[in-house]
Design goal:
149 residues; mainly beta; SH3 type barrels; three-stranded antiparallel β-sheet; 1 helix
Length: 149
């Protein structure tokens, strides 16, 4: 029997499940990533330490949603790039069209400031309870996520 401390993370399985759900229902899967030195993305597209990536089949080639990394090739500004994102840096996966998906906590080891921790929530606009203040989106495609107090 495997102890709770030895269990693999559920994050890659949930990411794959939501990717499949988006794809099968005609939605465009996006991932929001907290960028640090372990993330391989074009830095010129990073805003506020984050990047939102379209991971649909139309936007990527050689996509691998592994247990440790999300890897694919994509064009940015017409230039082909190799993208590699550690699973633990994924903040959310959601459908561009309706914002439904899931958010994940990402530790901010490099920064000393404390930020809001995200939990696995439905990232629809309706998921924000009255009186709760939504986090401001970093791009038009970013869903509204609920702050945890």
């Amino acid at each position: 029997m495997i102890s709770a401390t030895e269990l693999p993370s559920t994050r890659p399985y949930l990411i794959r499940a939501l990717y499949d759900w988006c794809s099968e229902n005609g939605f465009t899967p996006y991932v929001a990533v907290k960028v640090d030195n372990s993330v391989q993305v074009p830095r010129e597209y990073v805003q506020g330490g984050e990047i939102v990536l379209n991971v649909s089949m139309d936007a990527t080639s050689s996509l691998k949603l592994g247990n440790e990394f999300i890897e694919f090739k994509a064009r940015f500004g017409g230039k082909p790039r190799d993208i590699m994102v550690p699973i633990q840096r994924v903040m959310a996966i959601y459908a561009r069209e309706n914002g439904q998906g899931m958010a994940f906590p990402v530790s901010d080891d490099d920064a000393s400031s404390s930020t809001a921790t995200l939990s696995a929530v439905n990232v629809q606009e309706s998921a924000v309870d009255e009186g709760d203040e939504p986090m401001p989106p970093t791009s038009p495609a970013r869903p509204t996520l609920k702050r945890i107090k």
